[in-house]
Amino acid sequence: MAKCEVCEKTAGYGNKLSITRSHISKRTSRTWKPNLRTVKADVNGEVKRIHVCAKCLKDGKVKRA
């Protein structure tokens, strides 16, 4: 499953409502996936490829190799 290796962010689940929202029975399930990037990062002195969300990259939580 898709998961950020820094902040442990995973997919979120919920309901997708219809445009009109006139009937409560018109719901389908959907997922919100994290914006993951595969980057080469320095992990404990080694260069590894890890999956990191874009927010962790932007905040500087990952030291790129």
Explain the overall architecture.
The protein is mainly β and 65 residues long. Helices cover 9% and strands 43% of the residues. It has one helix spanning 54-59; strands at 12-17, 27-32, 36-43, 46-53. The strands form two sheets. Strands 1-2 form a two-stranded antiparallel sheet.
Overall pLDDT, averaged?
90
| Contiguous runs where pLDDT drops below 50 for at least 5 residues | none
Number of domain modules: 1
Q: Whole-number radius of gyration?
A: 17 Å
Distance between the ends: 25 Å
Tally of individual helices: 1
Question: Given the helix and strand composition, which structural class is it?
Answer: mainly beta
N-to-C order of helices and strands = EEEEH
Order of strands in the sheet with the most strands? 1-2
Q: How would you characterize the largest beta sheet?
A: 2 strands, antiparallel
